[in-house]
Write a structure and sequence with these properties.
- This protein is mainly α.
- 80% of the residues lie in helices and 0% in strands.
- The chain has 20 helices and no strands.
- The N terminus is likely disordered.
């Protein structure tokens, strides 16, 4: 009897040990760190914009371009990025991508020349595009039994990167740099070198295993096609979530100023830009159960639209609450969409799908807010700046209804490039 009880106890200990070690903590931590630098280098520019403009005699349009140029390059270079990554392998491409981002971001702090500053921003955007297509493709190698959790973790890293890039640069990093914006940019680049070292260690440990896993899963090498049904059904809602967030941040000041609520601007920006962090924490809690649920994507997309309509229709604190609801909804929509490619494809095809939908999403996300800005200026009415993006986001709900949620759903690709 004692032997049986001892055997059962040993089995229970083994079972508990397996359960405790079930989560791949090291890959998850590395995914989070990589996600951190997928957006942080872009968001450190706006807090330093005044110092940069004064040092380089830049106008407001040029200062704004410091933030938009990397995003534009990221969107336009997606196809090139995935083809390059296929040629050298996804993990090697990720290592190189982070090196490029580090050099590009750091180079911005080593110059007092506007052309060099923008050239460095372009280089950084190329590296970010390469990161964006490789990370989802590596999830099946790093977290094969926890795809949803892996997606949620690296997207949480992106969200935190956006928040600390925008919120910690001026009050913390700039002070550490002695008020020098160039040194501040260099300081933000240094931690990325540690992540590069960790990726190199991972590459040296099992480069052959990584190549074999990727090759076994890739099957036929899918090309990117803008005629692919999946690319558009996923890219259009992605554009709606990204575009709403960008347009709201861009035009919030002019809208509140037109309503005589300039005193609420600081709080509005703080609450709105903190809502993605709250959403990403909710995703860490519930994300594994939510990914692949079409109705949830639709609900969160609708919350993003209705919340922003409430912000435009109301004033004071009710408008701020509506604004937070909008930011919360579109962040959850974005996260659920970006987590889908590893669930729908395998190997290199994950990078192709990510690149295609990101190209469509980010390109449209830039066009629609520009249309809104033109309308607001043409009709001298600040609130019109958000209506084209709102109309587009509402229309995107039709794409959500047909968005593929499983690998079995037909792609409907007419051809590939």
């Amino acid at each position: 009897m004692g032997g049986i009880m001892g055997s059962l106890s040993r089995k229970r200990i083994v079972t508990l040990s397996v359960a405790r070690g079930a989560l791949p903590w090291s890959p998850l931590a590395l995914l989070w760190l990589v996600g951190l630098y997928m957006r942080l280098p872009i968001l450190i520019a706006p807090p330093l914009a005044g110092d940069i403009a004064e040092a380089l005699s830049l106008g407001s349009a040029a200062v704004g371009a410091l933030t938009t140029v990397p995003y534009v390059v990221l969107a336009l270079s997606m196809i090139l990025a995935v083809r390059f990554a296929r040629g050298i392998g996804m993990l090697r491409a990720l290592v190189l991508a982070l090196v490029i981002v580090t050099l590009g971001s750091g180079a911005r702090g080593l110059t007092l020349s506007a052309p060099v500053l923008f050239s460095a921003s372009v280089v950084m955007g190329l590296g970010l595009a390469l990161m964006q297509v490789t990370v989802p493709a590596l999830l099946r190698d790093w977290t094969p039994r926890h795809l949803a959790l892996g997606s949620t973790v690296y997207l949480n890293g992106m969200t935190v990167g956006e928040l600390i890039g925008a919120g910690a640069t001026r009050p913390i990093v700039l002070k550490l740099a002695g008020g020098d914006w160039q040194v501040a940019m260099l300081l933000w680049s240094l931690p990325a070198l540690m992540i590069v070292a960790l990726l190199v260690l991972k590459l040296r440990k099992a480069p052959r295993d990584t190549r074999e896993a990727s090759g076994a899963e890739s099957g036929s090498r899918r090309g990117i096609s803008l005629r692919s049904r999946r690319v558009w059904l996923m890219g259009v809602p992605l554009a709606a979530s990204v575009g709403l967030f960008m347009a709201t941040n861009a035009y919030m000041s002019s809208i509140l100023d037109a309503r005589g609520e300039t005193d609420l601007l600081a709080l509005a920006l703080l609450f709105y830009n903190a809502s993605p962090l709250a959403a990403s924490l909710v995703m860490l809690w519930r994300g594994r159960r939510w990914i692949g649920r079409r109705w949830l994507v639709g609900i969160f997309a609708a919350l993003g639209v209705l919340g922003l309509v409430g912000f435009l229709a109301m004033e004071g604190w009710p408008a701020l609450v509506a604004l937070v609801i909008s930011g919360f909804g579109i962040t959850l929509e974005l996260t659920l969409i970006m987590a889908l490619p590893p669930c729908l494809e395998r190997g290199e095809a994950v990078a192709s799908l990510t690149a295609g939908m990101s190209f469509v999403g980010y390109t449209l996300a830039f066009v629609m807010p520009m249309v809104g800005g033109w309308m607001a200026e043409a009709f001298a009415r600040a609130s019109l700046s958000l209506w084209p993006m709102l109309a587009f986001a509402a229309a995107s709900l039709a794409a959500v209804r047909r968005m593929p949620m499983t690998a079995r759903e037909d792609d409907g690709t007419a051809g590939s490039t």
